[in-house]
Amino acid sequence: MKLIEAKHYQDMSQKAARFIIEKVNRLPAPVLGLATGGTPLATYQCLREDHENNGTSYKHVYTVNLDEYVGVAPDDNNSYTYYMKKQLFDHIDIPPSHTHLPDGMAEDLEAECRRYESLIERLGGVDLQLLGLGLNGHIGFNEPGTPFSSETHTVELTDSTREANARYFDSLSSVPSQAVTMGISTIMRSKQILLLVSGAKKADILAKLLSEEPNEDTPASLLKMHQDVVIIADSDALSIVKERGITY
Ligand code: F6R
Fold first, then answer.
1. What gap in Å lies between CA 47 and CA 66, rounded to an integer?
2. How remote is the CA of residue 79 from the centroid of ligand 1, in Å?
3. Which band of pLDDT confidence, cut at 50, 70 and 90, is reported for residue 161?
């Protein structure tokens, strides 16, 4: 794993955007794995600004998102489909048919999970997977204990994840209890992974993932088994790693 230190959230976001733009400019048909949540918001803002100011084109880019809530319609403003449109897709020139998220409204969720795996395979796999880090070490919605071998599947969200996401909903009770997520094995098949970590709240879990041997109780620690992971973390997120002199 390669660790890039950023000064603060904005610096992390600019570095992440530059990383993504380099792939977009270099590859003939890049497949980007994208994440939602608070962490990548300013990264997407940097991509929007770069598209507007420098004309970086996404006509040749394909995207697959990590996850989507079950039972939330795509046009609902709490869906991840809506988030992606609002934060990125509606502002760049990517063809809508190139953008993909799991369908959380599918009647047969198992079939939907299989369809999503085949779709990623048909696209030739993910070139760069962007990840945020859950407070309990989850990646995508792969909560502690998710098997290493998991592919796209339906999950029951833990109370801590629902509480962390409640800020986007009217109340905790309206946060969905299930989601469809790429599995650990799906994520590990990406050619390269970019993990973004920001803020003092994430300092503990970042220290844990860097110091532990890969184990399923801290899903993000399994990233150590991937050959090409880049972490961009800001100084608040790195505070405990530095305090304890953790090497990895
Ligand atoms: C989002 C996702 C989640 C988040 C994680 C961190 O698509 O899959 O794993 O990346 O929960 O969320 P934030 O960035 O809000 O702290």
1. 19
2. 13
3. confident
- Main-chain dihedrals φ then ψ at residue 76, nearest 5 degrees: -70, 135
Give the HSE-up count for residue 28: Cα atoms under 13 Å, Cβ half-sphere.
Answer: 2
Pairing of strands 62-65, 31-34: parallel
Q: Is 134 in the pocket of ligand 1 (CB under 6 A)?
A: yes
Residue ranges covered by each domain of the chain: 2-244
Q: pLDDT digit string (tens) for 64-76?
A: 999 999 999 999 9
What are 181-192's pLDDT values in tens digits? Answer: 999 999 999 999
Residue 133 CA to ligand 1 center (angstroms) comes to 6
Nearest CA to ligand 1 atom 10: 132
For the domain 2-244, what is the CATH code? 3.40.50.1360
